[in-house]
Structures are given as structure tokens and as C-alpha cells.
Amino acid sequence: MRMFREGRNEEAMEILSKLNDTQGVVELAVSRIMEKLNVVLIQEPGVLVGVEEEVQWIQKNLMRLGVLFGYDFTEELMDVAYDLEDVIDDLILRSTAKQRRRGNWERFSLFIRIHMKLVLIKYKIPRLPRAPVSLLSSSSVPEYLEEMEWSPLFSIQSQNLANTVVSPVEEKVLALLALEALHRDSKKAATRVLDKFRSLDSFLKGLESVEIDDRGMVWMEELSHVSLSVVVVIQDFINNNQQRRKRSWMGSSFGKSKSQHDFDMKMDQIYAQIQKLSISKPHKDSQEQGQSRKLKPRATTLPQPTTQEPDFVSFADDVHAMMTRLLADDTSFGVITIMGMEGIGKTTLAKLIFNNKAVVDHFPFRSWPSTTACSSFGSRQILLDMMEQLMNYKMRVTRDTWVYSEHQEMMQKLKAFFIDNRSLVVMDDPSNFSWHDLFTVLGDTSNGTRMIRISREMGVASNPKTRNDFHPIRLRANDESWALFTHALKVNIPPELQKLKGEIVRRCGGLPLLIVKLAEELSHKDATIEEWSSALNQRCHDQEKLWSNTLCRIYKDLPLYMRRCLFSLTLFPQDLDIPSRRLIASWVAEDLVQTEGKNETPEDDAERCLNLLIVQGMVQVTKKKLNGNVKSIRLPNALRQYWLSKAQQATTLRDHIYTRSELFLGNDMIRHLVDHLDRKDISFDHIHGGCDTSSASLTHYYQDVLSFQSFDTRRESKPGEEVGNFLRRCISSSCFLLLRVLDLENVFRPNLPEALGELTQLRYLGLRSTFLEMLPSSISKLQNLQTLDLKHTNISTLPNSIWNEGYQSKLKPRLSMGSLTTLQTLCGLFVDEETPVRDGLNRLLNLRKLGLTVSSQPKAMSSQQEVVADWVLNLNHLRSLRLKSIDYNNQPWDLELKPLTGNLSLSCLYLFGRLRNPSLVSQFPHSLIDLTLSGSELTEDPVQSLDKLPNLKSLKLFAKSYLGNRMLCSLGGFPQLRVLKLWKLDQLGEWSVEKGALQALRDLEIRYCERLPMLLAELQHRTFLKIEVQPASL
User: Fold this and answer.
1) Where is the NB-ARC domain (predicted)?
2) To the nearest 5 percent, what fractions of the chain are helix, strand and coil?
3) How far apart are CA 880 and CA 905, in angstroms?
4) Does 167 score more than 90 pLDDT?
5) HSE-CB of 407 using CA atoms within 13 angstroms
6) What is the secondary structure of 61-102 as a DSSP string?
7) Looking at per-residue confidence, does 941 or 289 come out higher?
């Protein structure tokens, strides 16, 4: 500050300009390096063995950009950044050495080199010189120090490097970095020059829209000359290097050659020139003198959409959950915090609740004070605003009595008021507010007073003495997104534009603010395919601003294993609603999830991981099951596009082949193979027969593949033939031997080769909806198989080789329980009198999910069904059971089942067939969440027993499940039931619902119950209940 007091403003501003200019280069370098390191952490965590602690310490310190930008404008900081990048490249090289089976000595020496470099970096960071305190306390710097922490996330993506100055430099530098045996000093010198040019890009873009004077034109000519110099110097070095390699029988020499030394000197001279030009940038007009760097997302908040009545349908689940908590019979004071990212609908949800009639009736006094002036006037202003709103309810005090009260006196009066009056207070989380004052006012109430708090932070401070509930808002599902879009749209949608529904929903990623803004924009455009499609393609800029906070949390806060799980979603097609059961099974098969409890299964951990990603707005639920559980998900479009582009940039040491699969770092071998029927993908010809691929070529690409997923959904014979031939050729070439996931769901009748049994590491075999008719006998060799999904196939039974006694005897030293003992999911299997259930299927005791269809052979099947019933009782881990007993006409047949009270993990049960033991209905486990009965032919009211199940959320009573004429939901029955479906109950003529029953019911569907009179008055006026009645006459 002394420089400013003595009037040397120009000198100080020049120093600040130089400091800020250096910060721009550091920002680019650190951003690029952090993204590169994150990809290494996600895709190749194994290369960190032995150095993980050092790498994480350095990553943590470099992510503290506010600290880094406090350093002086010396070269030491850049050296540290480039040193770390050199280590990352060595880590990638380590992965390459491992995958190419290089010798132990080479890998060990590489490990020692990496370790020594990391130790040196850790030594350097604390010893970096810092900028003078006077500069750091000046008016310009603190804003940067505060803002820059959030800026790297879109920095590289948003740059336009196609201009004539920067693009040639980038092209030549990347070509240089692809050279083998390039000395680290030469690499660092070239990268530093490139980062300097990149840091000028936004400034150059700004010059395109303004007029510059003669001095500016001279500056541009000098910059162009320096750019040309870089191109010439690098090209000469590349040419000399190639000639030297041809002349020398040793190829690349070790150490640093004279040509590299000369090259380094020239690059240092060029860097000095560009540094000087960067400091002397020409001034633009005052209108254009805004900061060229990006600010953090909080400073770029999008304008709010036009105020309108909030859409209830899109937030119905959230409103119901919040109302249940608010109106609970609990007199103690409680806080419910609505959490979520910007634009996700926190305030909209709060408005829907605040103005709800049930809330208005329950809370005689309600207040929503303004928090916009809190930063200027503090908590007193909020308390005054709260008081004025409460006065509208005819408080027996005058306004002046409150306004001129001392702060403590006002708090005491408010406290006394809230103690006597049940109230609801909504606080839109202010950034500068003393929560202690508010908790002092509200905390001692015991009349059911509640506070709703709105916050973007996923973890917010709270009072330990107050009950705190958290309600994170998820992204909207497909149907909710479309409902919100049509609600906000001010025009009718022509039929020809309905085809854009999927694209509109996908582009907005379930984010309400984007949905409403898009609807408002399209309301003012012509309703044509061209106009609407053009508007959809221009949504990228808004998405960057809104999703940048989420991206920051992914990089800074998300554990490594969750980042790896999240990244796996990029392998699926962008327009696919990914089934959650498919995703969870693949995560478990690849050991991506982290076990947190001794009693938790990997499936529990995977499901918890998925729910956490949903809660944090990183994954969108696209469809929900009737019971409210997640059915399918999708990675939001903005995150998908960003992450794919960053992964491609960060993993490229040289030009890679084009593929949509995931490559090993540092080479062209594929880690996770996906087939999207993309003709540009290198794997397309390998899979679909467009080229004659040699064994060596297949080995190069597919030797270490961990998962293979095909999304070839053509309904013809070719997909099955092509994928079968590809599997056969790969296995015969010793490929896929590490494969853990083979997911061929929806591939029409894949020809599975007999060699499939050689994939002994396979854990997940997904054949759902393939209409496959038989399995290869070698499947019995898949000892590690956990999931075999045969649903919607024509496979009637498993191969006899699985039950072969000779094969079983070979397993006796291990488990003595037959093959496939690790199987956890078995769906779609048909059991007849010849199926080996005893001493066969009943050896599979680790099943979590089982789906069987039993044929009708009264004499032969009676004993079979009894064995099946005993087998089910022994499945202690069973969570989902689907049993069908059918005759030759696919009609319900006798179903044998014993009491399931011991199956304590069972949550989903589907029974199709006449229950030979009707009392079974009263012996279901309390863990049951989803129950479906069809053809059960029960004569006694099943609801009398089922309404006692405390966790039941979905109940479906289908045709002939109940043959009686009366049904009663007793007092307080079905406390958690959300979905009730009554179909074709021909004899049902009377249905009674006592007080307090079905309080959580959300969806009621009655079809073809011809004797049932009109809907009960008890249910007709439920606010949140969706009712569908389809008379028998229809």
C-alpha cells in the first residue's frame, strides 16, 4: 500500500498486471494438469501403488488455487506445475510398461524415478517465494484470490484456439510432445510457451469486436511474428531430430543433445518475447475492459425466469415428502433444509409448500423474510422483516415498538411470540447471517414451529440442539421434466414437434431452471422443427454456468471410487436410460465400489453410491418404479460432454485412434470396450467384419479388456452372428481373458461360442431381451459368475454340464457345492420335471435375485415345487423373488411356497399362480417393500394381513388374486404404501378405508372391477393422490 500512498500508481499497476498475467498462465497449466491427474486417478488407480500418498498431497495443495496465486511472479511456480505434469506422464508410462509386460527391472527403475520426482516436488512447494503483502492487500487482487478457485473447470473447454495466432503454436507443440526421447527441459520449455499463448486467447477474442489503434496493430504484428517464430523453431528441431535418428544406429541418444540445448535456449527467448508482449497488451475501450478471465459460477448467475405459478406435478414427490415432515405430530422445533445446486428448484419447492392450503391451515403464522439485504444490514434486518410479516397477522403490538427496540429486546419479544404461536419460517440461506440469533428466537418453542432453510451447500451448519432434517432435491425425471416444460410453454405443441420431446428432456438434464428458460425461449419462436432444433443447439453456454459448481464438487469433494463409478456412465449411449440394476451389477462385477460396513454387501454399497450421486445432482433419475425406487438413470448431458472432452485431452500423449471405448493411458489398448455401431470407431470393423483382422492385431487392442458392452439393437440375425464371431476370434487370440463384464442386453440372439468358458474371470453375463435359445455347455466353467440375466430369453433350462457329477467332483476340494456357486442373480429360468433342482439349483445359496417359471405337471412337478420351496427358504441373502406357475396355456397353476418369515432381506416379491397355502399371506417378512399377487385365488381378505407390513410401498392385486367381495383397510394401515393397483377383481363389491389408513398413498389404479361402486369419499379429496379408474365396460 505504500507505493499507492506515494503516488507510484503506474509502477504498482504494472506489477499487478504482471502478477495477474502470470496467474492466467498458472490457471491454464494447473487446470490442465489437474484434469490429467484426475483421469489417471479414475482410469488407472493401479499405477499409483507406492506413490499414492505423495500424489494426493500434491494434488490437494495445487487445488488450493487461492494460495498458489498468492505467489510472486517467479518461474518457480510454473516449474512445480510442469514437474508434476512430467510425473503424470511417467505414471502413464508406468501403466504402458505394465500392460506391455515389460521387465521387472524397467518397471522398478521407473517407479524409483517417479518417487524421487515426487519427493522433489513436495520439497519445492513450501519453499516457493510469495508476493509482497502490499500487493496482495490491494484492491484488485483479493477479488482474484476469492474467485479463481472455481474458474479452471471450463477454462480449456471454453477457449477458442482456432485463431491464426494460437492454433499454429498449439499444433506444432503437440507434434513436438509426441516425439520419443524428448528431454524434460525441452518439453517444459515448449509447454510453457503454449500455455502463454493460450492465456492470451480470451483477450484476442475480445479484440475482434472492438477497434484498435495503430499501437494495437503494431502489437498484433509483433505477436504474429512471435507465433511464426515458434512454428519455425519447432519444425526445424523436429526435422533435425528425424535426420539425426536416421544417421545414428543407436536411434535416440540418452541425455540432452546439443540440438536440444539450442532448442531450449530459443524457446526461452521466445517465452521472454511473449511475456513482454503479454504485459504490454493494448487497452480496449472502457466498455470492453471487463476482466478477460472467467469468474466463479456464483458471479455468473443466470437471470431467473419470468415469475409464474409453480408447477405442482413436477415436484409432487418432493412436496409430499416435505409435507409429511412439516405436519408430523411432533411439538419440538425442527429445521428442514432444502439442498441442491443452482436452478434445481429449491425456491420453487419452498413456494409450493408455503402456499399449500394444508400448511396455511396448520401454521397460523408464516414468515418468509427477505435475505437480500443481509450482507449489508446483518441479521437485524432479517428479524425486522420477519416481524413486519408477522404483524400482518394482527399482532397486538405497534410497528414502532419493534423497529426502535434494541436488538436483544427485539429478539426477546420475537421469542415470546413464537413460544405462544405455532409458526412456519422460510429462510433463503443468506451468506452473511448469524444463525445463533434465529435459533435463540425459535429453538425453545414446543408447539410444532418449523423452519425451512434453502441452501446450495450439501453440508450446512446447524444447531446441535435442534432436530435437523435434510431434503436434497434431485434432478427431474423424464416425465417431470416434460410436465414442467409444457407447463412453462406459452403455446400449444404441434404434433410434428412431439418428436423433439426426448431431445428437449435430454438436453436440459432434468434441471428445472434450464427447462423453464428453454420453454420461455421457444414460446417466442415459430413452432417449427428448424427453429426449435436451432434453439436446442444453443443451450451449451447456459449449461456451463449452471453445472460448473457440480463439476467443481466432482473434482474436489467426490471420493475416487465414486468418480470412477460416475465416469463409467460415459460408456453408455447418450440417449439411453440406463437401468439401475444393469449399472449396479456392472459396478459390483468390476469392484468399483468401496465397502463401508461389515454387514453390507457390494450391492448395498453400489446402491448407496448411486443414491449419493443422485442426491448431489451428478446423476439424473430418468424413470422411477411405482414404489418410488430408481428404475433408470442418465448422466446429465452437460457433464457427459465436458467429461468426455476432458478425458480425451488429458489422456493424449500422442494422437490416438478414434474410439468411444476407454483406452489404457499411454497406448492404444482398450480397457472398457463398447460397441455403439459407430463406423469411425476402430472396433467397428473388428466386430462387424469390415476387415480381415489378424490375431496379433486383436491382441494389441483387446488383450486386457475388462468389460465388453454391445449396444447393437438391430432386430435381425447379423448382430448375433457378428458379436459371436468377434468373441470367438478374440478368445482364440488370447483376448478377453481378464473380462469381468459381458453385457449383450438387447443384442438379438448372440451366437455365444463354446470357448466362452475360457473367460474364467467373468462375473456378469447380461443376456436380457436377447431371445437367446440356448447357452454353451462351457458356461459351467465360469466359477466367478455372479449375475446371469436370462430374462426375456427363450432359454428353458441351464446346460446339463452344470450338473455333471464328474465336474462337480473336481470342485470338492474348493466348495463341494457344484459350479456357479458365486452366482447372485438368476432371472428368467424355466423349471420342469427334468430340471435338476435337488443337488443342482438348490446349491446356489448366494442368490440375491431369483426369477423362476415352473411348468404344470401335477404328479412330476409336485416334488419339484417342494424342493424349490425349501431352496427359497435357505436363500438368506435373497432380496427379490419372482415365481410363476403356469399351465400349457400360460394360465395360473398351483404354486407351492412355504412361509417366508425367515427371509429377512426379501424386499420384492412377485407371485403368479394359485397359492396352495393361503395363510402364506400373513407370513410375509416385514422387510417387504414391493408385492404383486396374480391368480392367487385367495378367498379371505388379504388386506387384513398386508396392511400390517410396515415397509410396504407398492401393492398390486391383479386378476383373480382375491375372489372375495369385501376389502377393509383398517385404522392406520399401510403406513408407507405409495402405490395400490386393483385389477380384474370380479367379485369385489365393497371397499372400506378407516381413518388414518393409506396416508402415504400417491397412485391408485382400479381397472375392470365391475362390482366396485364409485370411489370412496375418504380418498377422493386427497391432495397428492393420483387416481385412475377404468370401468369394466371399456
Assistant:
1) 317-487
2) 50, 10, 40
3) 9
4) no
5) 10
6) HHT-HHHHTTB-S-SHHHHHHHHHHHHHHHHHHHHHHHHTT-
7) 941
Burial of residue 317, with CB atoms counted within 10 A of its CB: 0-12 exposed, 13-18 middle, 19 or more buried: middle
Q: Write down how long the chain is.
A: 1034
Euclidean distance between CA atoms 45 and 58, whole angstroms: 16
CATH architecture of structural domain 559-650: Orthogonal Bundle (1.10)
Do strands 849-854 and 894-895 pair parallel, antiparallel, or not at all (unpaired)?
unpaired
* Block residue for cell numbers 432436530: 467
* Statement: residue 216 has pLDDT above 50: yes
Q: Residue 888: exposed, middle, or buried by beta-carbon count in 10 A (0-12, 13-18, 19+)?
A: exposed
Q: What whole-number distance in Å separates Cα of residue 932 and Cα of residue 684? A: 43
Q: Is residue 468 within 8 Å of residue 439, measured between CB atoms?
A: no
Give the start-to-end residue ranges of the domains of the chain. 2-283, 311-472, 475-538, 559-650
Contact indicator for 405, 413 with CB cutoff of 8 Å: yes
Is there a common fold for 311-472 and 559-650?
A: no
Maximal CA-CA distance, the chain = 107
- Coil, helix or strand at residue 689: coil
| Integer Cα distance of 754 and 239 in angstroms | 53
* 8 Å CB contact between 885 and 854: yes
Q: How far is Cα 17 from Cα 2, in angstroms, rounded to an integer?
A: 18
- The β-bridge relationship of strands 849-854 and 764-766 is unpaired
* Element containing residue 235 per DSSP (H, E): helix 214-247
Task: Check: CB of residue 318 under 8 Å from CB of residue 473.
Answer: yes
Enclosing H/E stretch for 741? strand 741-743
Q: Which residue has the cell 540445448?
A: 261
Q: For the domain bounded by 311-472, which CATH number is listed?
A: 3.40.50.300
Judge contact between 415 and 386, C-beta under 8 A. no
**Residues whose CB is less than 8 angstroms from the CB of residue 752 and which lie 6 or more positions away in sequence, other chains included:** 724, 727, 772, 775, 776
> Which residues, 6 or more positions from 607, have their beta carbon under 8 angstroms from its beta carbon?
584
Residue indicated by cell numbers 415352473: 854
If you write DSSP's letter for every residue of 513-536 in order, what string do you get? Answer: HHHHHHHHHHHTS-SSHHHHHHHH
Q: Are 1016 and 991 in contact (CB under 8 A)?
A: yes
Return the bridge partners of 909, or none. 881, 931
Give backbone dihedrals phi and psi of 914, rounded to 5 degrees, phi first: -70, 120
Q: Quick one: pLDDT band at residue 595, thresholds 50, 70, 90?
A: confident
pLDDT of residue 122: 67
Cα-based angle 24, 25, 31 (whole degrees, multiple of 5) = 90
Mean pLDDT for the stretch of residues 893-899? 91
CA distance 929 to 951: 5
Instruction: Report pTM.
Output: 0.73
Q: Under 8 Å CB-to-CB from 141, ≥6 apart: which residues?
A: 16, 19, 135
Mean pLDDT, the chain, integer: 77
pLDDT at 953 over 90: yes
Q: Determine the Cα–Cα distance for residues 180 and 96; give it in Å rounded to an integer.
A: 14
Q: Which residues pair with 853 in a beta bridge?
A: 830, 884
Q: Is 890 exposed, middle or buried (0-12, 13-18, 19+ CB in 10 A)?
A: exposed
Helix (H, G, I), strand (E, B) or coil at 302: coil
- What is the signed CA dihedral for 19, 21, 24, 26, rounded to 10 degrees? -50
Beta bridge partners of 426: 452
Q: What is the pLDDT of residue 676?
A: 93
The grid coordinates listed for 750 are 448372440
